[in-house]
Amino acid sequence: MFKFNKTINPLVRTHMKKITVKLLGIGNWLKLRHSVAFVSRSVLVSLFGWKLWDELRFYYYHGYKLNLKNPRTFLEKLQWQKYYGKIEEYSKYIDKYEARKYIEHVIGNKYLVPIVGVYDTVKEIPFNKLPVSFVIKATHGSDWNIIIKDKNKANWRDCCKKINKWLKTSYYKKTGEINYKNIKPRIIIEEYINEPSGNLLDYKLWCFNGKFQFIGIHGDRHIKAKAMLLDADWNLLPICYPEIAKWEQIPLRPKKLPELIELAEKLSAIFAFVRVDFYCIDDKIIFGELTFTPGNGFNIRFNKELDLKYGALIPLI
């Protein structure tokens, strides 16, 4: 029987957190949470594989049991895709360098951020020849970025340590997202882009079978990250990121929204589900990335109705 647990799990989790924080202090609690999560994951995954760990996490985060035999909801089908779907074949669309070929082919290279270079090792990066401002990214992971606004003030030694760690780390083994499994670890350096106000908004368009359904707007990362999810008519949806604050007011609808939707639908036409990310700077649209497993399916919350509605749009193939 398909059931949602709306109250017990979140309440127990919140109560346990308050008690632990009071006993240990917030700093020690954060350290404990990280250590326990890492040890628990490592032990369970090594003994039983990723599936059991994901089933436990799914119930913890979403409050209902993950059904991989007969998935009905959007959140269940995200997990199903990782084990039984075709997303292992999507590496070339996720690889931050290789994906550029698909973008150029479908919508043109004018939407791509110019690149400085692509490198297999840290030693290959010509630091002295790099522009003053740039962005370093790992091609084989998510959120592995270093923004350099002024290289003359950057701690290059620390940057190199972080880059070397990325290159030695399998994002697939770290998260269980099989779509990252076959990506060659490399470093891509792009030109630095920013909005004149300093608040670069990230428009994330969620598309199903080549049709746009709703949009996430992310920003204020330099202060305190904010996000909000809206439908095509710019109405607030009962979908949220629990660890990210909401905007106090609904952000203005971008002038380029019709073009953003058109581009996203072109890029998503061959996929059952994909999130297509863009930036808009001075009315210029810039492609961000394609994402098939947003937050690994754990950092976003849907209400029951929408979870089922969007789940029905994804065929199990």
SSE blueprint and pairings:
Layout: H1 8-24, H2 26-48, H3 50-62, H4 74-84, H5 91-94, H6 99-106, E1 115-119, E2 134-138, E3 145-148, H7 156-168, H8 171-175, E4 187-191, E5 202-208, E6 211-219, E7 226-231, E8 239-240, H9 257-267, E9 273-281, E10 284-291, E11 301-302, H10 304-311
Antiparallel strand pairs: 1-4, 2-3, 2-4, 5-6, 5-9, 6-7, 8-11, 9-10
Helix pairs in contact: 1-2, 2-3, 4-10
Provide the descriptors you would attach to this structure in a database record:
317 residues, alpha+beta, D-amino Acid Aminotransferase, Chain A, domain 1, 3 domains, globular, disordered N terminus
3D architecture notes:
The structure is a single chain. The protein is globular. Mean pLDDT is 87; it is low at 1-8. By secondary structure, the chain is an alpha+beta fold. The chain has 3 domains: 8-85, no CATH class; 112-191, no CATH class; 196-311, D-amino Acid Aminotransferase, Chain A, domain 1 (2-Layer Sandwich). It has 10 helices and 11 strands. A hairpin with a 6-residue loop joins strand 2 and strand 3 (145-148). The strands form 3 sheets. A 5-stranded antiparallel sheet has the order 7-6-5-9-10. A 4-stranded antiparallel sheet has the order 1-4-2-3, with helices on one face. Strands 8-11 form a two-stranded antiparallel ribbon.
CATH class (first level) name of the largest domain: Alpha Beta
CATH topology of the largest domain: D-amino Acid Aminotransferase, Chain A, domain 1
**Under the CATH scheme, which architecture of the largest domain would be assigned?**
2-Layer Sandwich
Please provide the ordered H/E string of secondary-structure elements.
HHHHHHEEEHHEEEEEHEEEH
Q: What fraction, in percent, of the residue positions are helical?
A: 25-40%
Q: Oligomeric state of the chains?
A: single chain
Radius of gyration: 20 Å
Order of strands in the sheet with most strands: 7-6-5-9-10
The structural domain count equals 3
The tally of strands reads: 11
Structural class, please? Answer: alpha+beta
Distance between the termini: 23 Å
pLDDT below 50 for ≥5 consecutive residues: which ranges?
Answer: 1-8
How many distinct helices?
Answer: 10
Mean pLDDT: 87
Overall geometric form: globular
Q: How much β-strand is present in the residues?
A: 15-25%
The main pleated sheet reads as: 5 strands, antiparallel
